[in-house]
Each structure stands twice: as structure tokens, then as C-alpha cells.
Amino acid sequence: MLNIESGLYFCPSHWLNSNLRIALVGCGATGSAVAPLLFKLNHIRRELTAQEYGLKLSIFDPKNVTETGKNRTGFFSTEVGLNKAQVMANKLNNAYGKNFASGFSRPFCSSDTSMDFDIVITATDSARSRYDIHGFMSKVKDKTSLWLDIGVGEQFGNVVLGEFGKGKHRLPNALDLFPDIAKGQQDDELKRKSCDILDAISRQNFTVNESGAATAVGLISRLMLHGSISVNGAMYDVEQCGSSPIRINREVWRSFGYQYRKPKSVSC
Q1: What is the pTM (predicted TM-score) of this model?
Q2: What's the fold here for domain 2-254?
Q3: Of 25, 21, 19, 217, which Cα lies nearest the Cα of 104?
Q4: Cα separation of 43 and 164, whole Å?
Q5: How far apart are CA 202 and CA 211, in angstroms?
Q6: Which H or E run contains 233?
Q7: What percentage of the chain's residues is helix, strand, coil (to nearest 5)?
Q8: I need a surface site. Which of 43, 84, 132, 251 has the fewest CB within 10 A?
Q9: Quick check: 160 and 178 in contact, CB under 8 A?
């Protein structure tokens, strides 16, 4: 729940006494860094709730592990040709002996909204897929789902946690603060890909994906374990070793072009 006057967002009440369902869309360089952090968060949450409540992770990615792609994602040579989402889910479940993750070798689609996700994490370089997911989830009316988006460039990135939907009295999401996602501009910027690992590393900082993953999971861990957050994202630059928080503040949001509107009070 958003309290703009105090500059805080409070975790949904049902988080306190239920397993949280999380969708991770994309299991490339960023997604493969997010998944193990979510397992650690699951372990912490289960310990704090006497093993009663944890996380249930669903990973979506239609792509397979490639020989060149494995260098940035932590997959092994023996996994080349296998689906990324299924490999990651199996590795987490087998390594830790838990039925924690499920892998789906396809994109996230409209029918997946029926899986009742509490958080959808987009770790994909496709602006179009992020826009489509926003459209799918915004049609769900019976609950508030959060969208955690991780956008990564060559040396910089941004993380935004927001609510799906179009109402103005809510936590703004990535599409609200970075409307160029809707235009697919990031897709154009990422079309240049290389099969040469040296060229790829020289163009994109080695830790830019891991920095985004750590920032993102750190944000939801704060909300989950402490009950509230005062920032709903960050912009970071690994080349300069710096980051700037996106505070829960209407003036900060206005600087991104987003206009917060307080709901009208109802007179008795």
C-alpha cells in the first residue's frame, strides 16, 4: 500500500501469512543472477516463519543455452542446447533439495496471469515483451501484483518496483517512469550482438547484470523482511561505481515525467 505523505510503500498484508508466488521472465545474464538470490531469500523467509512460508518461483524463457552465451550466464558446457529456464529450475531444486522452482520453456503469456503471481520480475532485453506483460497483468483486477523490472545497458542499468495498472494512486512502474519501453527503443539498442566473447565483454561491463540482480532482489527483500520501502528503484553505473535511488516522492517521480494524483476524498 502506498502512503505518499510518508514516502513509504508497505507490503501487502497477505505477504505476512502465505507463500509468495514469483515469476521470473528471462534467464539470461541477468535472470540467471536473480534466481539464486531468490532461493537465498526463500531460505531466509522460511527460517523466519518456522518453515511455514517461503517463495514459489516460476521461470520463463523460450531460449536454450548457447556456447557463447554460457560465458555470461554461469551455465555449463554440458548444458548447451538445453532450455535455460528448465536448466536453472532443475539446478536450484537439485542443489538444495527443495521443490522451489519450475521452469517453462516458453514466453510469459496472458494465460499465466491465472497463476496468481504476487511479483513478476522482468529480466529480459526485449522491451516488447515487458510492454506485453504489463498489459496482461494490468487486466487482473482482484489483487495487487508488483512488477520488478531490471533494465540493463552496456555499463548502466535501472531497477524499478511498481504496481501493475493505470490508476495514478499507486506505486509507479517501469513503464510509467521509462515510457520509451513502449516504443521498443531498447530493443533497437540491443540488436547488435556478437558471437565473440571478447567483443561482448568489451562492450558490456562484466558485472552490470549482477549489479541489477542484487539491487532488485535487495529491494523486495527489504519490503518482505522489514515491511516497507522508501525507494522503489535505482539507477546505477558500474563504470563509475555509483547509483542513485528513485525515492517514493511525487517530485522525484515528476522528474521522470510521471504525474502522481492523489485519490479524491469521499465526503460523508
Answers
A1: 0.92
A2: Rossmann fold (3.40.50)
A3: 25
A4: 27
A5: 17
A6: strand 231-237
A7: 40, 20, 40
A8: 251
A9: yes
SS3 assignment, position 247 = strand
pLDDT at 223 over 70: yes
Distance CA 208, CA 30 (A): 8
- Using N-to-C axis directions, what is the helix angle for 84-96 and 31-48, rounded to 10°? 30
| Alpha carbon 222 to chain centroid, angstroms | 14
Please state the domain extents for the chain. Answer: 2-254
C-alpha dist (Å) from residue 41 to 5, 169, 230 = 30, 29, 20
C-alpha cell at 239: 563504470
Q: Which residues contact 68 (CB under 8 A, 6 or more apart)?
A: 195, 196, 197, 200
Asked if residues 66 and 29 have their Cβ atoms less than 8 Å apart, the reply is: no
- Please report which helix (H) or strand (E) contains residue 97, including its range: none
CA 213 to chain CA mean position, Å: 8
d(CA 151, CA 158): 5
Q: What is the pLDDT of residues 202-220, one digit of tens each?
A: 667 888 999 999 999 999 9
Chain centroid offset of residue 155 CA: 18
Q: Which residue is associated with the grid cell 532488485?
A: 216
Determine the Cα–Cα distance for residues 17 and 125; give it in Å rounded to an integer. Answer: 34
Single-letter residue type at 264 = K
pLDDT tens column, 88-98 = 999 999 987 67
Q: Which residues contact 35 (CB under 8 A, 6 or more apart)?
A: 24, 27, 57, 59, 88, 92, 101
Q: Which residue has the cell 516522492?
A: 249
